[in-house]
Design goal:
Length: 158
């Protein structure tokens, strides 16, 4: 099954307001019907990079069978880790960025690697907000999910 995932993470400073990470999974079922599933973690007090990682993780974990995934993110932190071989380098160095500089969010990176294991994932960086249609789609769909309280309960891809 082919799936598109749009992610967004926002570490907003207002604990009483909206914020958090969100993802939208889009797929077409066997009858040709387009489905969208919003996943959100609600408000979390953490870094924006952690939010971006969580958005990708919850979306991939929600898929219950192997899929061909296009994961759209405006976070270079997430996308470059896979497309620029950061992950391979970190693993080879024992999860260090330099000689003694530990990788930030190592627990989440390992969880993301596990979540993507059974899928064929293509990470796509939708850089900037200057009218790039996929970036606008990430912002609109995933931010809407992040601002909601639609917590990930069920799985996609039955």
């Amino acid at each position: 099954m082919k799936v598109k995932i749009y992610t967004d993470g926002a570490a907003r400073g207002n604990p009483d307001g909206p914020g958090g990470y969100g993802a939208v999974i889009q797929y077409v079922d066997t009858k040709g019907v387009l489905h969208e599933k919003e996943l959100s973690g609600g408000y979390r007090k953490t870094t924006n990079n952690r939010m971006e990682l969580m958005a990708a993780i919850v979306a991939l974990e929600a898929l219950n069978r192997p899929c061909q995934v296009e994961l759209y993110s405006d976070s270079s932190y997430v996308v470059k880790a896979f497309t620029d071989r950061w992950i391979d380098g970190w693993i080879a160095k024992g999860w260090k960025r330099g000689k003694n500089d530990p990788v930030k969010n190592e627990d989440l990176w390992k969880r993301l690697l596990k979540a993507k294991e059974k899928h064929e994932v293509r990470f796509i960086w939708v850089k900037g907000h200057a009218g790039h249609p996929e970036n606008e789609r990430c912002d609109r769909l995933a931010t809407q999910a992040a601002d909601g309280e639609n917590l990930a309960e069920d799985t996609i891809g039955r």
